[in-house]
Amino acid sequence: AGTAAATDLTAIDAATSTTAVNASAVTTITGTAAEIAAVAGAATITKPANYAATVSGAPSVANLNIIDANTTGVITASITDTAAALAALTGTGNAYTMTVSAGSAAAADLTALDAKTTVAVGASAVTAITGTAAEIAAVVAAAGITKPADFTATVSAGTAAATDLTAIDAATST
Predict the structure, then answer these.
(1) Dist CA 168 CA 35 (whole Å)
(2) Which of 21, 53, 80, 124 satisfies CB 3.0 to 4.6 Å to 75 for a cystine?
(3) Contact status, residue 60 vs residue 29, Cβ threshold 8 Å
């Protein structure tokens, strides 16, 4: 039981060609996302269904999704990308420290990110938020999204509730 480095598990796996590596007592696997994804994909390494993963470095969405598909445990990682790219992350309840790149972000993507992590979504570099008035107002109201001090709100066509527009107006001076 305990923590194992992904590189140690793959090295043991490479050295034992006739026997599966029994890592079923491991509670946490550490390493880069690519290293942990290699363990996740190794059919010859027996892993518990709920191991935690502590990811170092700059992971890709694809590698985090491979890990997420392999464990029900919590994945802890820091990742920076656009809101649209980060919205492709699978799973919920992980401890992703997400930093949304500067520029425009869809409100629906930002609220989706908030649902994927137990850590506040860092969206303070976002300069514009787009979507329906209700979607943008949901971002404004979300406690789990660190919003910029000021942003441009681009409300899509359609009907908008006065309460949503008032909330958006109060959150931005642009």
Answers:
(1) 43
(2) 53
(3) no
Tokens of 37: 């994804």
Task: Report the percentage of the chain scoring pLDDT > 70.
Answer: 99
Residues 83, 87, 88, 92: is their CA dihedral positive or negative? positive
What is the residue whose two structure tokens read 């946490």? 28
CB 40 within 8 A of CB 70: yes
pLDDT in tens, 126-168: 999 999 999 999 999 999 999 998 899 999 978 898 999 999 9
Residue-level pLDDT at 174: 60
User: What are the angstrom distances between the C-alpha of 146 and each of 62, 125, 138, 149, 170?
Assistant: 24, 9, 13, 9, 16
107-116 and 133-141 helices, crossing angle to 10°: 40
Which stretch of DSSP H or E encloses residue 50?
A: none
Q: Is the pLDDT of residue 173 over 80?
A: no
